[in-house]
């Protein structure tokens, strides 16, 4: 059998088992246990509907039976490209029940990203809505069925076209016999449970393999650090496909604690506030870019958030002053969350003093998380010094999926993952994030790989050279500025032209640059690489008041 990714050394795995971090249970076993132990407790609320844990388990069994009738089974990879809805959660667990592996796509992804996910994972099925935010997913799915030889089936949430290869999600419940005791899928806790997306800094995103053991611990440990219990009501406002929303503690951590998950179709305050008030939501998670909208709505309708106890903020660096303003204005506990789909999660604790909550990005959720902070030569920095964060632990991967060359660059010989984040550590163990060394733009929590966008910019007939650079932005944290060397015989393309060009090449809309600047040439470093720092400094000087 060809190994798709490195696993933990057996000695480390055994230590995690002995410590109780790895419980040896699959997600399907967890769900069955929850349904047995708390059958009548509310598990999921979405689209005006409510399911108890027992009812959720029944729905999952029905879907799993249908998936088996379609010929899906243990080890199959299925790209899950749904917006926030109850069916995302149910289908995710149904795939776990048959031993298949969900591959997460974000709602904003388009043909380029989806094709990459299918090809790298070898996906045999693709799950889509009919439309979402005015985008036609059926046309995209039909295109994938034609171009991707591994893909044989499209499952549609909504009305499926009467064409070969398409099946409506609702039809799955009638395909199989859910009353027949299902055969054991043979899945073990060390098997692959899900493939998550990396932020991506070197072209197209990498796939992150998470096992049942490590991902369940990710959810349990974060839930404990958030004080989650059976009274917790979690609002899933950010996309369910994000690691943050699914397992930090998110949906899975809330279920682990016996709480209730409320699914919001979008994170706008106009949508979220009524759900928070109606269902007694106690905790939710946002990115910094969404906070101004929530703060403004809270000034107009403060009663809606009276029961909200914890507001998690992550996905991008939260400014210290913004954190203090949230404390003052919204009368709740802000919990900063710093982490990555690759593993390590740090959070501020609910009882931390204000200076730590507002001025740091938290400390690891597990006592088994190992941290090193190193200089450019790989040497550990002095106490409180800044350097690159390296980490390993019971829920941090040891290698990306089908990416041996990238793994050789991203991991040390003894298994530490080089995150690319520049941090310093306080005596309390809390980390302060100072920046990144990887070529990535974090626009309000959306990670944009500069290399990927640059490759597509160079396909434009009027562009001879391109550099995508992160610039500070008050609203988004960072914005993307494209510096373009254009053909002198052509008119420089506008920002709108560039957005249309990238859209036509199948890129998600959020990857289009916020600003486009024609330049005569791109400065180079002594090694011949584009000097993006010089470009950024040049731009700052040119826009600074004189």
From TrEMBL:
Residues 32-401 form the AMP-dependent synthetase/ligase domain. Pfam families: AMP-binding, AMP-binding_C. Residues 452-529 form the AMP-binding enzyme C-terminal domain. Gene3D superfamilies: 3.30.300.30, 3.40.50.980, Luciferase, Domain 3. InterPro entries: AMP-bd_C (IPR025110), AMP-bd_C_sf (IPR045851), AMP-binding_CS (IPR020845), AMP-dep_synth/lig_dom (IPR000873), ATP-dep_AMP-bd_enzyme (IPR050237). This is (2,3-dihydroxybenzoyl)adenylate synthase. The lineage of its organism: Bacteria, Bacillati, Actinomycetota, Actinomycetes, Kitasatosporales.
């Amino acid at each position: 059998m060809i190994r798709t990714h490195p696993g933990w050394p057996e000695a480390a795995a055994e230590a995690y088992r002995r410590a109780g971090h790895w419980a040896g249970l699959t997600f399907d076993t967890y769900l069955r246990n929850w349904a047995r132990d708390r059958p009548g407790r509310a598990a999921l609320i979405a689209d005006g509907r409510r399911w108890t844990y027992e009812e959720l388990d029944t729905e999952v069994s029905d879907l799993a039976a249908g998936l088996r009738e379609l010929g899906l089974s243990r080890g199959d990879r299925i790209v899950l490209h749904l917006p926030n809805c109850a069916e995302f959660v149910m289908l995710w667990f149904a795939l776990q029940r048959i031993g298949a592996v969900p591959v997460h796509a974000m709602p904003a992804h388009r043909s380029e990203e989806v094709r990459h996910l299918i090809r790298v994972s070898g996906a045999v099925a693709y799950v889509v809505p009919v439309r979402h935010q005015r985008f036609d997913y059926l046309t995209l799915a039909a295109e994938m069925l034609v171009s991707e030889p591994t893909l044989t089936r499209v499952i549609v949430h909504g009305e499926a076209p009467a064409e070969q290869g398409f099946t409506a999600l609702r039809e799955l419940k009638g395909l199989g016999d859910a009353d027949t005791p299902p055969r054991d899928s043979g899945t073990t806790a060390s098997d692959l449970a899900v493939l998550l997306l990396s932020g991506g800094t070197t072209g197209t995103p990498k796939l992150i393999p998470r096992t049942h053991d490590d991902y369940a611990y990710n959810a349990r440990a974060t839930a404990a650090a958030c004080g989650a219990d059976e009274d917790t009501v979690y609002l899933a406002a950010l996309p369910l496909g994000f690691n943050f929303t699914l397992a930090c503690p998110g949906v899975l951590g809330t279920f682990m604690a016996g709480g209730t998950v409320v699914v919001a179709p979008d994170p706008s305050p106009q949508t979220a506030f009524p759900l928070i008030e109606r269902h007694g939501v106690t905790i939710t998670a946002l990115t910094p870019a969404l906070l101004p909208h929530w703060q403004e709505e809270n000034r107009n309708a403060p009663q809606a958030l009276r029961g909200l106890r914890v507001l998690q903020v992550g996905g991008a660096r939260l400014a210290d002053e913004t954190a203090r303003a949230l404390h003052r204005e919204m009368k709740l506990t802000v919990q900063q969350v710093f982490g990555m789909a690759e593993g390590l999660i740090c959070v501020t604790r609910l009882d931390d003093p204000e200076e730590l909550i507002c001025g740091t990005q938290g400390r690891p959720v597990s006592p088994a998380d190992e941290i090193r902070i190193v200089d450019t030569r790989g040497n550990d920095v002095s106490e409180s010094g800044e350097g690159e964060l390296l980490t390993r632990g019971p829920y941090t991967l040891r290698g990306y999926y089908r990416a041996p060359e990238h793994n050789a660059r991203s991991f040390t010989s003894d298994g530490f993952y080089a995150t690319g984040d520049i941090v310093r550590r306080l005596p309390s163990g809390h980390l302060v994030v100072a920046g990144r060394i990887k070529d990535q733009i974090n626009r309000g929590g959306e990670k944009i790989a500069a290399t990927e966008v640059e490759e597509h910019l160079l396909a434009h007939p009027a562009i001879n050279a391109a550099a995508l650079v992160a610039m500070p932005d008050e609203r988004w944290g960072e914005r993307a500025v494209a510096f373009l060397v254009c053909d002198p015989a052509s008119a420089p393309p506008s920002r709108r032209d560039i957005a249309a060009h990238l859209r036509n090449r199948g890129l998600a809309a959020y990857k289009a640059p916020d600003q486009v600047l024609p330049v005569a040439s791109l400065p180079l470093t002594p090694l011949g690489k584009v000097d993006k720092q010089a470009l950024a400094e040049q731009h700052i000087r040119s826009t600074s008041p004189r």
